[in-house]
């Protein structure tokens, strides 16, 4: 497991990380982005470009957002390993943890 | 060689901190090789990665196998001795465009011509990443670096042509970001009975490099992954007929760098010191 996208991304989805990822392993859900745990190569390119600092290395996820590790893993339970977010396109659903977040004011 | 069918990718990850620039294509190559190794069915103690000096050459630290971080450009010579003395081992050379093609190109060509059972992975990032961004033998013409403020004058060196000229029997080119193709090239290189030189081009980030995987002896030299600015690793390979990958790069990933000189450089990482330096000078 590798990098994790946590709560600050919810309802933001800036996608700068998607542009930066060299292996196209950051997938778009309805309200947040998710990093594929098996396709990520641990290069760390996404972390510094996130404008809301939502991306953490697995071991460094703040305690209050630890569950987002599980969310990033479980989001792909039904998807398997598509081999690239660009080919799959946006996924019109979210992990329950993200879906249950209050909608952020615009 | 003994076999251990229970090995997994995790078994090939070492406890060392991987130290390349964020976004470097070498990360993708490392992950792919670690994922490929269990399919060899070879025990870790019977696998050896030998490297020289450069961004690519930290590779042995990150593989939980035997390894040697050796002298600049001398990895093919050391691996030749090892492969001759211990034919039961799976011996891999990891090198880069500077290490293999500039510092000691002679070792590379002689390893290739001798038909020794080595696999040479050349990570070609087209720049000297470790020393912060001077032009390398494979830098494209016109490339502005610290050592070429007016742009590189030379035609880029072509590793595959060199390998074929040295009578390598397996030469391939692949791309770091194309995991499927890279894995396929590795598989073909391993299946090749003699040395193979696959090289993969590694793009992106200051620590990127182009790598060409090749199987040594009779095979073209493997791709090297240079660190910094380019990281494309691509193993390819059918004997003496190096081919470009037919697979299409994933959307949003930089396209495979062209073999032709003067091609546009891939995006550089905002967080990479070398890339920043290149951006400033370029």
From TrEMBL, chain A:
<dbReference type="InterPro" id="IPR000813">
    <property type="entry name" value="7Fe_ferredoxin"/>
</dbReference>
<keyword id="KW-0411">Iron-sulfur</keyword>
<dbReference type="InterPro" id="IPR050294">
    <property type="entry name" value="RnfB_subfamily"/>
</dbReference>
<dbReference type="GO" id="GO:0051539">
    <property type="term" value="F:4 iron, 4 sulfur cluster binding"/>
</dbReference>
<keyword id="KW-0249">Electron transport</keyword>
<comment type="function">
    <text>Ferredoxins are iron-sulfur proteins that transfer electrons in a wide variety of metabolic reactions.</text>
</comment>
<dbReference type="GO" id="GO:0046872">
    <property type="term" value="F:metal ion binding"/>
</dbReference>
<keyword id="KW-0004">4Fe-4S</keyword>
<feature type="region of interest" description="Disordered">
    <location>
        <begin position="84"/>
        <end position="106"/>
    </location>
</feature>
<keyword id="KW-0813">Transport</keyword>
<protein>
    <recommendedName>
        <fullName>Ferredoxin</fullName>
    </recommendedName>
</protein>
<dbReference type="Pfam" id="PF00037">
    <property type="entry name" value="Fer4"/>
</dbReference>
<dbReference type="InterPro" id="IPR017900">
    <property type="entry name" value="4Fe4S_Fe_S_CS"/>
</dbReference>
<dbReference type="GO" id="GO:0009055">
    <property type="term" value="F:electron transfer activity"/>
</dbReference>
<feature type="domain" description="4Fe-4S ferredoxin-type">
    <location>
        <begin position="31"/>
        <end position="60"/>
    </location>
</feature>
<dbReference type="InterPro" id="IPR017896">
    <property type="entry name" value="4Fe4S_Fe-S-bd"/>
</dbReference>
<keyword id="KW-0677">Repeat</keyword>
<keyword id="KW-0003">3Fe-4S</keyword>
<keyword id="KW-0479">Metal-binding</keyword>
<keyword id="KW-0408">Iron</keyword>
<dbReference type="InterPro" id="IPR054830">
    <property type="entry name" value="FdxA_Actino"/>
</dbReference>
<dbReference type="GO" id="GO:0051538">
    <property type="term" value="F:3 iron, 4 sulfur cluster binding"/>
</dbReference>
